[in-house]
Amino acid sequence: MNVARVVDAKGLACPMPIVKTKKAMNELESGQVLEIHTTDKGAKNDLTAWAKSSGHELLDYEEEAEVLKFRMKKG
Predict the structure, then answer these.
(1) Cα(11)–Cα(32) distance, rounded to whole angstroms?
(2) What PANTHER family does the annotation carry (predicted)?
(3) Sequence-separated (6 or more) residues with CB below 8 Å from residue 53
(4) Which one of 1, 14, 34, 73 is separated from 20 by 20 to 30 angstroms, measured CA to CA?
(5) Tens digit of pLDDT per residue, the chain (75 long)?
């Protein structure tokens, strides 16, 4: 998977992972993939809901050594 950009939101609490994700998404072209790294456990629900409400597609999610990694395609 070709990731266009990575957002490092580790150590940030809600709503900052969403704020950083939204800003990065605004800079991408439709169809490009953004990867988000966060340690906020609430981000799974938050990013899933935000992607759905803003027309983006959450491609996948994994947890690796306390870091949650999301890949999202811009709608």
Answers:
(1) 25
(2) SULFUR CARRIER PROTEIN YEDF-RELATED
(3) none
(4) 1
(5) 799 999 999 999 989 999 999 999 999 999 999 999 999 999 999 999 999 999 999 999 999 999 999 999 999
Sketch the domain layout of the chain as residue ranges.
3-73
- Global pTM value: 0.93
Q: Which fold has domain 3-73?
A: Translation Initiation Factor IF3 (3.30.110)
Distance of CA 61 to the CA centre of its chain: 9
Active site residues: 14
Nearest to 72 by CA among 54, 60, 55: 60
